[in-house]
Design goal:
273 residues, mainly alpha, MetI-like fold, 72% helix
């Protein structure tokens, strides 16, 4: 029989497990973003050997279910580490590690593959002439990327980044398979006492909808704030795609590049005077 009191009690109880889910999401997103960006750069610049390795890695991770990655890694990594420490004579107990560490490992490397494609597609929408304009203004490669390329690429990447983040949040519901006490794990434990699985699953359903809806709204706000970096006037792109880094015409530069170029001319004019 459907137990409404259990439904409400468990719903409130599951919120205590939300920080664990958000922690896994945040750590995996940060690590995955760094690794994904490096992978994207390696593939864009076609670094010998490394780009092929990265392409194979992305293909393997994107082509296998997350649940399979969890089963393989959670079975393989602890055993491999245990064998390694034993061979070195160490008494370190691998199996005493907090299982959330394995969750960080699995979801971070999974997100790295997903976000590498998000960042790669976003970077390829920016006109390469803007990189050359940065050099003309006296900026280094790193400064040009940080001040000109990345702000515009983020705007292009935000929709896909939002989808990837929401997908990650939903995938963390599988962390219970690594004995992590996340939302799903706590719900299943509570349901096991009286076999109230339907009520627990409904609680999980509602909580994930709330979390994912909030995240989507935050990304919408971020997209509005980041629209200042869109090319063209009033945050709208001008011209058709020229196949470089953005939807600008080859001779069109965003406001940030024009300002930097004008500043460079003023500095040069002052020096010449």
């Amino acid at each position: 029989m459907f137990d409404v009191s259990f439904l409400l009690k468990t719903f409130l109880l599951l919120w205590k497990a939300v920080p664990t889910t958000l922690l896994i999401t945040a750590v995996s997103l940060v690590i995955g973003s760094v690794l994904g960006f490096l992978i994207a750069l390696a593939r864009i610049h076609k670094v010998k050997v490394l780009s092929q390795i990265c392409a194979a890695y992305v293909s393997i991770i994107r082509g296998t279910p997350v649940v399979l990655q969890i089963l393989v890694i959670y079975s393989l990594v602890p055993s491999a580490l245990n064998a390694f420490f034993k061979s070195t004579g160490s008494s370190f107990d691998v199996f005493s590690l907090n299982p959330i560490i394995y969750a960080f490992f699995v979801f971070s490397f999974s997100m790295a593959a997903i976000l590498s494609e998000v960042f790669r597609s976003a970077l390829l929408t920016i006109n390469r002439g803007q990189l050359e304009a940065g050099y003309t203004c006296g900026l280094t490669y790193a400064q040009t990327f940080r001040r000109i390329i990345i702000p515009q690429a983020i705007v292009a990447a935000l929709p896909n980044l939002c989808n990837a983040t929401v997908g990650l949040i939903k995938n963390t519901s599988l962390a219970f398979m690594m004995t992590v006490k996340d939302i799903t794990a706590v719900a299943k434990i509570e349901a096991s006492y009286g076999y109230n699985y339907l009520e627990s699953y409904l609680d999980i359903f509602v909580i994930y909808i709330i979390i994912c809806s909030v995240v989507q709204q935050l990304f919408k706000l971020w997209e509005k704030r980041a629209s200042a970096f869109k090319t063209g006037s009033n945050g709208k792109s001008s011209g058709k795609s020229s196949g470089g880094f953005s939807k600008n015409s080859p001779g069109s530069f965003p406001g940030r590049v024009r300002k930097l170029f004008a500043l460079r001319q003023v500095i040069n004019g002052g020096e010449n005077a």
